[in-house]
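Researcher: We plan to redesign the surface later, but first we want a full-length starting point. Tokens attached.
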């Protein structure tokens, strides 16, 4: 199938969580000047685009995902001049900047909400979702993603407002055309500044079902609001309007974070016809290790289920819509600790194997800061070391409700908590990993003395250099970007084996997900003696004569 070529299909994106990337002034908080100072590092890695987690003015109830002014910079991160300098430096390095767009909700300190809550007649009242209580209780049984009900009682007007996240993140009312005008104006303002795209925070949640019905009770504290909030009745209409009025006027990369997205929905959001977004982040592979308490679970993902989900997205979107590829972001634990092996013996090997598996798939890959070093989950000593509102609230709610005891819940947080991704980037082996001269806002992972950028840039066989090579290969071989995908051995518990095909060319990707040797069958037409495009271990015997070694990854290539 002929695929239209565009830069965002061929790019590799690097996500920066500014708070934890690099602190330039010793206050313990990463900032824009810190990012500007690391542009050479990103250039060396070879990435094309930075996705910047929110840098807007914010009281930081949810680390910047609660925005109080969309046209200003968070004090801790610097000034608008610092932003302009960062943007300019990035562009000089040939790196594009994609902004986080958080418009399902604002901060309760945003001027619109400050007005909105004043009175029912206020012109900003309908910017948000206000309702009367029902029988002296909340308007419906929805729970917030960060624990507690999704409704907050407001004394001034004796009504409740909706907040799907923290109570300091009231949901905007997208059914109000004025809200859409405001958001589109603001987006245009940033585009005129020269930014290169948007990652759209929980964009699948902007259109709530008419009447805000109660969710089905499933034994938890709250009803299941998914069907009434995710992929709601007008979401595609609103995104098409956004596309017409803003996105189509510029050459942008757009990616929607779409909680609850199915393949069928993704075909609409990310259709190659270009009426809405370029691509979406789906969650099915990340939700495989969920349990009765949702994400709070430490079950290990089984390889056949992972392959089934990945293959479904690979095959069903091919030629119809565009995939994004990710293992990590600021909301997910570290992938080596989740799907690989973070013991020193296998840490680097498994990090490279996981990188191979993901980067050889069809779609646009995302790297989260530190993933290119094989950074791991963090041994937080106790709850006082946690910073994330989601973990802190969930620990309290689930233990108080008797759903899990404290030890169990804390173990789940160590395995799945978002703070695992948010400890400082490990630059070198000096104090605080070279992240700050001061006291960091969240502890540094004690393994920084072994895992850090300085050491890995010097060592040829490091995870860093392996990522560098994967990124380079993508630039050299169209098949990695545009080829189709064929899964083999779907039921095998150890080996993920797939082919990519583009015209007369083929790749064979072999990944062992275990710490034991693993047998495999070469698909028809492969001898095992083809050109090795990349491998995470020195060649031993030719592939056809042996098993895969623990966490081994090999990519073979041939053309007719
Ligand atoms: C998205 C963000 C997450 C944030 C939430 C609310 O899921 O990735 O970090 O807490 O939305 O904005
Ligand atoms: Ca700082």
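Model: Full-length starting sequence:
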């Amino acid at each position: 199938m002929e695929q239209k070529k565009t830069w965002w299909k061929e790019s590799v994106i690097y996500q920066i969580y500014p708070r934890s990337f690099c602190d330039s002034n010793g206050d313990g908080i990463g900032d824009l000047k810190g990012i500007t100072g690391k542009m050479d590092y990103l250039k060396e890695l070879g990435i094309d685009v930075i996705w910047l987690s929110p840098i807007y003015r914010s009281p930081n109830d949810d680390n910047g995902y609660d925005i109080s002014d969309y046209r200003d910079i968070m004090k801790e991160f610097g000034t608008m001049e610092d932003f302009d300098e960062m943007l300019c430096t990035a562009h000089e390095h040939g790196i594009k900047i994609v902004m986080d767009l958080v418009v399902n909700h604002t901060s309760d300190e945003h001027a619109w909400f400050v007005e909105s809550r004043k009175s029912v007649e206020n012109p900003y009242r309908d910017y948000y979702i206000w309702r009367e209580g029902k029988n002296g209780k909340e308007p419906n049984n929805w729970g917030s993603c960060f624990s507690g009900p999704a409704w907050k009682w407001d004394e001034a007007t004796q009504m409740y407002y909706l907040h799907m996240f923290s109570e300091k993140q009231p949901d905007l009312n997208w059914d109000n055309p004025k809200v859409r005008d405001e958001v589109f104006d603001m987006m245009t303002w940033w585009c005129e500044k020269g930014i290169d795209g948007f990652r759209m925070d929980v964009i699948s949640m902007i259109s709530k079902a008419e009447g805000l019905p109660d969710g089905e009770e499933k034994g938890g504290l709250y009803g299941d609001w998914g069907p009434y909030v995710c992929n709601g009745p007008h979401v595609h209409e609103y995104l098409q309007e956004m596309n017409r009025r803003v996105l189509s006027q510029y050459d942008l990369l757009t990616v929607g974070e779409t909680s609850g997205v199915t393949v069928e929905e993704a075909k609409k959001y990310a259709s190659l016809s270009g009426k809405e977004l370029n691509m979406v982040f789906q969650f099915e592979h990340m939700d495989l290790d969920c349990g009765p308490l949702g994400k709070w679970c430490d079950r290990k993902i089984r390889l056949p289920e992972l392959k089934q989900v990945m293959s479904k997205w690979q095959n069903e979107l091919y030629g119809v819509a565009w995939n994004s590829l990710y293992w990590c972001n600021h909301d997910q634990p570290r992938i080596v600790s989740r799907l690989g092996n973070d013991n020193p013996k296998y840490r680097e090997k498994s990090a490279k194997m996981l990188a191979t598996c993901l980067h050889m798939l069809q779609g646009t890959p995302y790297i989260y800061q530190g993933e290119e070093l094989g950074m791991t989950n963090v041994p937080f000593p106790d709850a006082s070391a946690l910073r994330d509102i989601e973990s802190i609230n969930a620990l309290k709610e689930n233990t108080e409700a008797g759903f899990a005891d404290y030890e169990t819940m804390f173990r789940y947080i160590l395995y799945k908590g978002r703070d695992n991704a948010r400890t400082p980037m490990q630059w070198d082996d000096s104090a605080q990993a070279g992240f700050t001269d001061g006291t960091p806002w969240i502890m540094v992972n004690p393994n920084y003395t072994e895992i850090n950028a300085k050491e890995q840039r010097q060592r040829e066989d490091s995870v860093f250099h392996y990522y560098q090579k994967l990124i380079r290969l993508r630039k050299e071989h169209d098949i990695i970007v545009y080829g189709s995908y064929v899964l083999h051995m779907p039921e095998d518990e150890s080996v993920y084996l797939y082919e990519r095909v583009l015209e007369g060319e083929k790749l064979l990707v072999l990944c062992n997900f275990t710490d034991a040797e693993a047998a495999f069958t070469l698909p028809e037409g492969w001898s095992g003696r083809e050109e090795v495009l990349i491998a995470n271990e020195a060649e031993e015997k030719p592939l056809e004569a042996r098993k895969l070694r623990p966490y081994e990854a090999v990519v073979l290539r041939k053309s007719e």
